[in-house]
Structure formats: structure tokens, C-alpha cells
Amino acid sequence: MSLFKNEKTPCLICGNPTPKIYPTMIEDQPICRECEKLISMEDHLMALLTINRLRAHLKYREKNSNMHAGFVETRKASCEMRNRTICIDDVHRLWYIKDKVNEPIFRFVDLMGFTLLEDSHILQRGNAKGIETFPSIVESEELDDLIHPAQKLNGLLMCKSYKDKASINNSYEQKIKGLVKTIRLEIEVNNIYWQKLKLNFNAPDVIDHDINRFIIDYRSKLAEIQEIAQSLMTLFPKESVNNMSYADELMKIQQLYGAEDEYLQTNSI
Fold first, then answer.
1. Alpha-carbon gap, residue 227 to 137, rounded angstroms
2. N or C end: fewer C-beta atoms under 10 angstroms in the chain?
3. 129 Cβ neighbours under 8 A, 6+ residues apart
4. Do residues 106 and 191 touch, judged by C-beta distance below 8 A?
5. Looking at residue 244, what is its pLDDT?
6. How far apart are CA 71 and CA 68, in angstroms?
């Protein structure tokens, strides 16, 4: 008998023992860790789960697993900063974000839009109508006041003592670090369990007081993330081929998410 598993209170979904410590509760009933790992939805929907809704969700997840088996990866867009990859199947017009086992798969038509942000500052915004780009904080004119004096530290300020030089450099360094802490890509989707997917990337750090190196690294990493955004733009339908009727679209939804039909009709969250 395990010290950490409760065999007297089996999981209502699969019958396996449930955890004794901090179990996930659905309608005041614990579920096992294995069933818990299969759940994939936004956090606020977890509080609305019932046992019946969870069963319907796990059927949906089983369907999702089967779709992974038939997924044909024709291309992908990656960012090494956090090893995030968007895998695209142009044959079946599907995509998902590679992160862990049985990631949720979305259709091309599920993509509603995306926003790329430097902290709360919007850098790019894209949807089926096109993409808008705004100036980067790190590329702003105000940054010149921070960069140029730091560049002079390698020449004009050589006459100062090492302590003074380090103090001045550190001052500019802190200002640079405070410009952008997180680069975030928010992807809006039309899905019953997901409305917004968030990919967070920490901005590069200043190494060895080299501010110029930081600018180069920042531009490189930002370019990688923008590549992902550009790949998302290719998923939007072209107007010339977007002739599918609403009835046809509903039929495709039912074929793809057949396991969810009963859920949508009787257990809408």
C-alpha cells in the first residue's frame, strides 16, 4: 500500500488510486494523476468542470491523440529561446504548439489572431486582414541616450578609473535591463477549451557589461519570435480560396471534433 496513494478512494474516471496529498477535486471527488495529466484547458475552466464534463473532455483529448498519430508535419517555426515550436500540417490544415505530450491540435480556421508584446507594449498585431507592426522599445530613439555614452566607455572614458567606468556602465546596464523584461506572443483561437495561448520569453540579459552585444542578441531573439508570428500569418485563408459555406464549415467541425458534439449540446461551459 502506497503512502502517497489513496486506494480506498479510487478515481471516478478510471478507477486508479487517487493522491493523498493535494489531489485535483472534481465535484468534491478526487481524480488520479494520470487523468489529471490528460486535461488541457484554460485554468478558469477547471473550476467549472463536472464529472460528466471531464468525461466528455477526455473523449475530446483521446480524439486529439488520434489526430497526432495522423499529423503530417510539413513545416515548423521554432524559437530556441525556450525551445517553442509551432508544427504545421498543410495537408490536413492543422497546427499545434510543441510543448509536451498530446498538445492540443487546432485547425487553421481556429486561428483568430495574435499579438506580440514587449511587456505591455504591442509590437505586432496580426489577423486575417493583415499585420500591424509598431516600433520596438529597444529600437526607440530614446535608447540612443543609453547606448552612445556606453559605447564611449571603450574610448573617451578610458582615462577614468576602472571603478568609475564600472559604475557608469552599470548605471546604463540597469536602464537597459529595465526596458523589456518579457517578450510575449498571445495567440487567439476559437476553441471550446482555449481562447488564448500565451508564449512567454525572457528578454536576453546584458553579459559582461556589453550593451552592444545585448542589442544584437535582442534583435536576434526577437527575429526568431517574429518568424513564428509570420508563420501564423500563413494559416489565415486567402480570400480567393475562402469559398467554404457556413454549412460546410459546420460539417468539418463535426468531423474533426465528433467527440465533442454531445458535450457542446448538453454540457456547454
1. 19
2. N
3. none
4. yes
5. 45
6. 5
